[in-house]
Amino acid sequence: MADILSQHEIDALLSALNNGEIQASDVTEQKKKVKVYDFKRAMRYSKEQLRSITRIHENFTRLLTSYLSAQLRTFVQIEIDLVDQVNYQEFIASIPSRTILNIFEVKPMDEKMVLEINPQVAYAILERLLGGQGDPSTRNGTLTEIETVLMQRIFSRAFNMYQEAWKNIENIKVKLEAIESNPQFIQIASPNDTVIIIALRTTIGEITGRMTLCLPHYIVEPVLPKLSTHQWLSSMAKTTIPQYDVLKQNLDTVQIPVVAEIGNATLQVSDLVNLQIGDVIGIETGKIQVKAGQLTRFLGNPGLQKGHYAVQIEQIIHSEGDDQ
User: How far apart are CA 50 and CA 224, in angstroms?
Assistant: First the structure.
C-alpha cells in the first residue's frame, strides 16, 4: 500500500513548489503497466497448444517429404518455417493475388481448410510430374485442365497422410474439394475469425518456395482439450505399437503368387508352330520347383491330397539374406 502523506508533509511540499525549491516535473505519479489488447485479433490458443499443433505438422512434413520425393524422383525438403495465429483477413492479404489454393473439406467438423502453394513450387512439381527438370522459369500463367487434374491427384493422396499425422489426437477425414487461383474467391472463415497458419518452407531440386496451410478455429477448437502435453503423451503411449509388430502385421496380409513347376522343355520355333492336337512334348523332369513370386523356395514331389493335386515339400531353398 502506498504511503499516505500527513497534513504537515502536504504543506511542506506545497511550500517547496511555491518557493521553486522543487519543480512540478519532479513530482511524478508512478505509471501503471498497461498491456495493449486488440479485440479484433483475439488470441485463442496458448503456447502449449501451438506447440502441440507444431508437433502434429512436423510429423506431416516428414511424411509429405517422403511422398513427394518418391513421386517427383528428385530432392525434396519440407520444413516448418512458422506457426502463428492471425485473423483470416490477414492471411488472405499475405498471399499473392494469383496463386494455387487447394481447398479441403475436413470431417467430422464439416469445415474447410486451405493449402496455399507458391506458384513456383506448384510449377516445379508439375514440371517433374510431366517429365521435365523442374524448372518453372518459363511458366507465367494459370493451370491448364490437365495440370489441375495432376495437382488434384497428387495432393489428394498427400493429404491421406495428413489424417495419419492427426490420428493420435483425432480421427479426421480430409477430402480435396477444389483448386482455386484467386484468394478472393474462397471464404472459409469470417474476416476477423482467428486462424492458425503453418508456413512450410519447400525445396524441390533447385527451387525454393512456401506452402502455407490455413486452419480455421472451427477445426481446431473441438480438439483443444486434447492438445495439452499430458494428453498428447498419453495418446502416444496408448497408440504406440512396436515397429516389429507393425511390420509383421503388414507382411501377414501380403499376397504373393505360388507356382509349382513340374518341368520344362526347349523347342525350336519351327516345331512350335507345327504342333498338332495329340502331339507329345517331352520335358525334363526331376524335383518339382515351388516358386514364390520369381524365386524358387522349395523342392518337392507330386502327389494327391483329398482328390486334389498336391506337392510334398522335401527341401527348402535358402536365399541370401534369409535367417538361418
Answer: 10
**For residue 3, what are the contacts with CB-CB under 8 A and spacing of at least 6?**
none
Same domain, 191 and 312: no
| Cβ atoms 85, 44 nearer than 8 A | yes
Total domains, the chain: 2
- Report which of 78, 79, 82, 114 is spatially closest to residue 99, judged by C-alpha positions: 114
pLDDT per position as a tens digit, 146-198? 888 999 999 998 888 898 888 888 889 999 998 988 888 888 888 888 899 99
- The parent domain of residue 153 ranges over 41-249
Residues 6+ apart with CB under 8 A from 216: 88, 111, 112, 113, 188, 189, 193, 195
Set of cell numbers at residue 241: 505399437
CA distance 215 to 38: 21
The string of pLDDT tens digits covering residues 35-77 is: 665 555 556 788 888 888 999 999 999 999 999 998 888 889 9
Torsion sign across C-alpha atoms 309, 312, 313, 314: negative
Q: Are residues 208 and 77 in the same domain?
A: yes
Choose the final residue of a domain: 232, 249, 266.
Answer: 249
Pairing outcome for strands 76-87 and 100-107: unpaired
- Name the amino acid, one letter, at 299: L
Phi, psi of 264 (to 5 degrees): -145, 160
3-state secondary structure of 311: strand
Residue 229, CA distances (Å) to 46, 52, 99 in order: 12, 7, 36
Terminal C-alpha separation, the chain? 83
